Amino acid sequence: MTVKAFSPEWAKAFKDEVNKSAVYKAAGKGWKWSVGLVVEAEPDKHFTDAKGIVLDLFDGEARDVKIGEAADAQKCDFVITAPYSRWKEVATKQLDATKGMLQGKLRLKGDLPTIVRYTKASQEMTECTTRIPVEWPDES
Amino acid sequence: MHDPNPGRMARRKLSSRSDAAVVDYADKEPSAFASMLGGLIEANVEGRPEKQADFASLVARVGIWVTDIDEGVTLDFKGGKLTVHNGLEPGRRLTIRADAETVMSLSNLKIGLFGMPVYYDEVGRGVAAKLLRGKLKIDGLLPNVVTLNAVTRIFSVQ
């Protein structure tokens, strides 16, 4: 079932995908920090208000994924920020998240050694987003 | 539940910090990759005492070129100080050329007995296989194995 990008339905689908992933379960073992994704507004792409996605990840499991304000996501231990169209590129496999971070297309805030240690887990989380059929506001 | 003190942040410019900063940047606008590598090494050196002896004694210029984003840096280790340059600068002793995923794998190499990187676990085997297949190239490797091992120890987050 197709869900609207970055909607509560998308959040639930994302959480389910993460929890279905044996790769994430193994690679995320030991993770205990909150992650916030900030999706910046791009009115010309019909994405008018910034959103924050708060991921409660713990020891290889997604306990909760919530959609809220950008400010909610900015309070997390790790924050990744990018405009709407960049996140769309990630979710449609046009941009690899690791490359995006090295190029500054995705801006990361948080303890670098920790995030590098969990590269495989973050790659698998990106993979999970690509498995969700999404209705994009600039395509509808 | 969550770590209240997540530690060092990426994309900080260190040039305005005190002289005690172990990492600085040669360019006014460090690239995202330069900031990330510099931040990673700074966090490693400041947070992990076992890295400090290598960092204090290493004097070498090491280039890292990420083949799939066409960006690179030069790490100029100056015995207890590091200057990070955007791009490849002359006078490098070693130059590592690999894709982004492999560069991240290098920082996930475990360090084993006698400070040698571990090439027999999953990450190590992956790195070794890429070296054999030519997907990871290290210019200047043979005469500078000791330098490479020291850089790997400083770089490793494991």
CATH architecture of chain A: 2-Layer Sandwich
Determine the strand fraction of chain B and express it as a percent band: 15-25%
Using a beta-carbon cutoff below 8 angstroms, give the protein chain pair with the largest interface and the number of residues from each chain: A-B, 27 and 32 residues
Q: Indicate the mean pLDDT of chain B.
A: 87
Protein structure class of chain B: alpha/beta
Q: Note the overall shape of chain B.
A: globular
CATH fold name of chain A? Nonspecific Lipid-transfer Protein, Chain A
The domain count of chain B comes to: 1
Number of strands of chain B: 6
Order of helices and strands of chain A: EHHEEEHEHHEHHE
Order of helices and strands of chain B: EHHEEEEHHEH
- What is the rounded distance between the termini of chain A? 15 Å
Gross geometry of chain A: globular
Keywords:
heterodimer; A: 140 residues; alpha/beta; B: 158 residues; six-stranded mixed β-sheet; 6 strands; globular
Question: What does it look like?
Answer:
Chain A has 140 residues and is an alpha/beta fold. Chain A has one domain (3-126): SCP2 sterol-binding domain (Nonspecific Lipid-transfer Protein, Chain A), CATH 3.30.1050. Chain A is built from 7 helices and 7 strands; from the N terminus they run βααβββαβααβααβ. A 5-stranded mixed beta sheet of chain A has the order 4-3-2-5-6. Chain A has a two-stranded parallel ribbon with strand order 1-7. The radius of gyration of chain A is 14 Å and the shape is globular. The mean pLDDT of chain A is 94. Chain B has one domain (23-155): Nonspecific Lipid-transfer Protein, Chain A (2-Layer Sandwich). Chain B has helices spanning 32-47, 52-57, 100-106, 122-133, 145-155; strands at 23-25, 59-66, 71-78, 82-86, 94-98, 137-139. Chains A and B meet through helix 5, strand 6 and helix 6 of A and helix 1 and helix 3 of B.
